[in-house]
Amino acid sequence: MGKYILKRLLLCLLLLFLASFIIYTIMRFLPTSYVETQARQLASLPGAKSYSEWLEQLNAKYGMDVGILKGYSIWLSHAFQGDFGDSWQFNVPVTEKFSEVIWDSFTLGAISLILQVLISVPLGILAARKQYSKTDYSVTVLALLGISLPTFFFATILKLVFSVWLGWFDLYGKVGRYYEQLDAIGKFFDVAAHYVLPIMTLTIISIGSLMRYTRTNMLEVLNSDYIRTARAKGLPEKRVINHHAFRNTLIPIVTILGGSLPGLFAGAMVTETLFQIPGIGYTSYLAIRSGDIPFTMFYMTFLAALTLLGTLIADILYAVVDPRVRIS
């Protein structure tokens, strides 16, 4: 297993280099007006250098004045040192801004993932046990709704009902207008109240796929010979389902969850933007919209690394949950 993980890590590093090179190449084909606009803004500050000096410095820092291969090597050498430049949109180092906003996204993603598993897996198993019943049809409809509803549409409906009509929650933002006047407990519940609608959005639009996967694979397992044998031996139905059938249903679930774990740090751009939660998704949207090349490069490379990590986690978990999988 250790040798296999080492090989996969080396392969992931190679793929990450290729992905970052493609991202850098795309950034190089963006209109040069982004760099020119940033140089113009910096030159307008009191006591700043001239526009031409700033333009030359920015082009040199991000390798915009040389070929793509040499420019990429310049960017990569800075990245190895943890220097991804200063964000043009937020006027702070990229890594500093990232560390400031990542935990809001992680909180939203972690809570929604836990709720997703707690809701989807039991309902999927229940639907499989009562195939073609009213319960099965109800779960199927719920899953299809979760799969089909666009994020922006469902989030807008939640805001209309709970914020506009009922007035239970604010329309957007992480904190309320009186946040600074509250004590520690009050601040906690204020933030928690602003997280309710985003978490509801992320959870409901995500439960459909996992619910359908669980139901489909549980049905396949329940029709297996060893399940019929277990029932013929007189084992209680609860033990047959929970001990024998569920363990073999874990394999496809691991596939989804393995890819979802890195997503905890990737942020939910649409949801965070609609609710204006200052997570990594909403921050990256602002950076991309304003042509913030340093932050956009870092964010897209970070997403590529998360994707590779998710694939590696899923492959490792295969061997953990399924003893039939052997890695040589």
Helix content: over 70%
Question: Total helix count?
Answer: 14
The computed structural class is mainly alpha
- The CATH architecture classification of the largest domain is Orthogonal Bundle
Distance between the termini: 8 Å
**Topology, number of strands:** 0
Quick synopsis:
With 328 residues, the protein is mainly α. It is 74% helix and 0% strand.
Structure description:
With about 325 residues, the chain is mainly alpha-helical. It has two domains: about 1-80; about 100-320, MetI-like fold (Orthogonal Bundle), CATH 1.10.3720. Helix content is about 75%, strand content about 0%. It has 14 helices and no strands. It has helices at about 1-30, 35-45, 50-60, 70-80, 95-130, 135-150, 150-165, 185-205, 205-220, 225-230, 235-260, 270-275, 280-290, 295-320. Helix 1 (about 1-30) runs antiparallel to helix 14 (about 295-320) and helix 7 (about 150-165) crosses helix 8 (about 185-205). The radius of gyration is 25 Å and the shape is globular. About 30% of the residues are buried.
